[in-house]
Amino acid sequence: MLGRFTSEKGFYGWVNLATAAVMSIIVGLYLVSFSYFLPFLVKEFGWNRGITSLAATINMIVLGFCGPVAGYFIVKCGARSSILLGNIVGCLGFLLLSFHSRLWQLFLGYGILVGLAAGFGGFLACTTVINNWFVKKRSLALGIFLSAGGAGGIFMGPTLMALITKQGWRTTYLIMGGLVILFSVISPALLIRNKPQDLGQIPDGSEGSKPITTSRSSRPQAGYRTPVDFSLKEAVRTPTLWLLIAYFCLNMLAMGAIMTHQVAYLFDIGFTAALAAIAGSVMTGVMTFAQFGSGFVGMRYSMHSIAIAGEVLKIIGAVILVSFRSVPPIFAAMVVLGMGFGSVSLATMNMFPNYFGLLNYPKIMGFARLFWAFIGGAGAPLAGLVRDRSGSYLVAFQAAILILVVGLIFLILARAPIHPSLKTETRQPVGAPAASD
Question: Which domains does the chain possess?
């Protein structure tokens, strides 16, 4: 069945992409499911929201700290091994959560085990596989990968809410563990291949044999890809990496507060459980189309410009969210937020390999995630504490909007870096011998 894809004349990248796309739906449970369980856990055990939300913070911190380790593991052992290891741990985490009754068990199950699962078996490993197999069509491939997760997210909110209310949150966690085993362990074990070279193929298939025209100019243009891979040490020495880290830290700090407490906030302003779930699904659905559309747009236009436009939309959506309480404007906010999320996630995911190259992508991305996951993880408990003390999320969400504005400034300044070897070439005196390619 897979013979035509695995032959040297075939292209297995599409099988990898399809497998990763299905995985993205399941792996999304690691990151977004907590907000749906939060109101029910608080109600059943009488825990306050600030302390309970520490589970999300621990999850983000663990995700961040295992980033560099996962990056090195992927380089040494391959993305496939990382995917299998991470998702087996994730299944154990959901199993523990189905039986937990104390806060420390929640922190261990969701904070530590699910955090490790997301770090080793999620975004970093999957995008490494996709980046290895696609170069010219990378933005499209990543757009498909992200939009698949978004498409699943359209149904995830209502499905989780229905399962929790009808079957109970314990049974729901067991079902989630079963899905992880089936689609994120067994499926990738059978189908994922790390690199085209493993099958005697090349990136992009037959189209990959055509030369890629990448400017070696010191002025990167739209669609720029560095012609020389950065090492981690070289990337750390660029202002661009630190600007991107600062942007992500602030972005995740703000959006961690808003997204973790989104369902609880909608409950507070009078939304029913079903309506809150539908609102979340609207945002996810729009995000899906935005990611897919941005994949096409990114093949022609600068990812940096797309990211900036998306970030502006996120800020506008957040402003609408905190300014109104009736259903129509809240749903409008979800639409605008979805457009912003979709375009930003696709664009920034492409900026790292485009700016710094593929060779050390797992290491560089893992290093960056160490910072933004640790700092960004503080958003959820801080918003919960504000809600517990003031009785409202308003102040926390308003502060989050200001943080997003500051993050936008860092994103605007994050221009494509020039590899040191190219700077040396451009500074050679007239008459000096040209550097060999």
Answer: 12-198+229-416 (1.20.1250.20)
